[in-house]
Amino acid sequence: MKQEPFDLEFNRIFKWLGNDSAPSQLKFELDLYKKLWNFFLIGDSYYFIINHHNLQFEFVSKEVEEVMGYLPSEFDIRFMNDKLHPDDRSWFLAIGTCIVDFFSQLPVDKLLKYKVRYDIRFKKKNGDYARILYQGVLLEHDASGKFLRTLSVHSDITYLKQEGNPVLSFIGSEGEPSYLDVVSNKPFVESKEEFTKREKQVLKLLIEGKPSKEISGLLKISKQTVDTHRKNMLHKKHLSNTGELIGKAIRSGWI
């Protein structure tokens, strides 16, 4: 089954965080982790642990049913994708990219000293949207710094924030600095005028997953012309391949 561009970018972010190393056997010490990190629980909350080796949820607390209406068995990695508010999808990718960039620049010995915090909207089982405060910490990583297991908390803060854009922060512990409101404006916005009208038409069809031959038929131009438009867009944006072009276009709202 062909994946949508959003799904491809979503999976790219989560797969970057993990690798082929398997984490150790899970030990349930949630109370200890909660105390160590002093999670900011300002609303109804639930906890979950992600195994980044296989992108599976190893544990979901029963409170997810009270907060979101879903059974723990229904809550999985696809929830993070399928239940996102449509207006927050580009934000979610931008936040994910910022998280990857931030942790990829940290020394390995500082990875466990940061908590990630941001807010985003998810659909509850009754169809309403809740603004969720996400807080997450790394529980385990391999020698190279790739994520193996994370502990996350979702808190319903709808009653506190009903409007406004998502905000991302990195909270340091053990003397490490914090970085607040990292995402404060519409992310990755670039000028659309760099592309010609025809290039935008080609880009839109590329995002829809159509190959060059099909695009040439739809636009009534040669396949060579389609490939030329694609190369021109890559050159203008200093990108190396079509996948990067599609991902950047989605994050930046070029189409």
TrEMBL record:
Protein name: PAS domain-containing protein
GO biological process: regulation of DNA-templated transcription
UniProt keyword Plastid present: no
Gene Ontology MF terms: DNA binding
Record-linked PROSITE patterns: HTH_LUXR_1, HTH_LUXR_2
Domain HTH luxR-type: 188-253
CDD domains found in the cross-reference section: LuxR_C_like, PAS
Superkingdom of origin: Bacteria
One Pfam family, short name: GerE
Keyword Ribonucleoprotein carried by entry: no
Keyword terms of this UniProt record: DNA-binding, Transcription, Transcription regulation
